Amino acid sequence: MKKQCAIVTGASKGIGLAVFRRLEDNGYDVLGLSRSRGALPEGKWIQCDITDSESVDKAFEEALERLDNHIDVLILNAGMGISGALEFTPKEDYRRQIEVNVFGTTACAKKGASLMREQKKGRIIFISSLGAIFPLPFQSFYSAGKAAVNALSDALGIELKPFGVETCTVMLNDVKTEFTANRIKTYEGDDIYGGRIQSSVSKMEESEQKGMSPEKVAEAVYKLAIRSRMPSHKIVGIGNEFLGLLYRILPTNAMLWLLGKIYG
User: Fold this and answer.
1) Is there a catalytic annotation at residue 193?
2) Are 7 and 63 in contact (CB under 8 A)?
């Protein structure tokens, strides 16, 4: 029986690495795409900067050649985060945020969509965030980017359904990874905002460091990959599923009031 083939972006560490290992442990032929190799096995890593179209083209060309022009599962995990008050966030920071999390993800999704449409099967899993449906103060660009990813996945899923290709967004809350330390933070204007910027971001980062392990996320992604049918959205974690329920039943103003009380 032919091995299932998978590609994971942002696979050098954190969630991407955990997903890579979980799939490989279960018999998948997996390749990891990232800017640096990190903890990936040398023979399983392909260098790729998802914000560089030539790099994406080259990486997927090499990956497809090594996987005999076949992908069963594409996990789009690569991303980054910034924080700060919207009005004081430097242009280069928020453009980088959207460039990586939206345009870079789109570039990779396009590659997967083209091949899977031709082979008439496949699954594209987008790693997203509850921040997509719960707009986070002082992380507005991160929330906006993840909301765009959710919409992108949903629309792409409709487009590709006649070709037997499914899409899913995995919405996460707090996960303990290097993502927290790597966040680009802007505290400009904190005096104007009465210290709320630093207070809000500190609360979020404290929660992240008490969050679930990347391995728990990887297990959820693997289960999605082998399901007979994927849901359009998957929220990981019992507590997080409850938050998803609140999103569905709370009026928008009530939800925004609650977010303001917690993080505003």
Assistant:
1) no
2) yes
Structure tokens at 27: 């018999």
For residue 205, the tally of other CB atoms under 10 A from its CB is 17
Which CATH number do you get for residue 187? 3.40.50.720
Q: What's the length of the chain? A: 264
Q: Provide the residue range defining the domain that includes 55.
A: 5-263
Q: How many independent structural domains does the chain possess?
A: 1
Catalytic-residue membership of 121: no
Q: Is residue 146 flagged as an active site residue?
A: yes
Give the predicted TM-score (pTM) of the model: 0.95
- Which tens digits make up the pLDDT trace of 136-168? 999 999 999 999 999 999 999 999 999 999 999
Catalytic residue among 34, 128, 153, 200: 128
Residue 48 burial (CB < 10 Å; 0-12/13-18/19+)?
A: buried
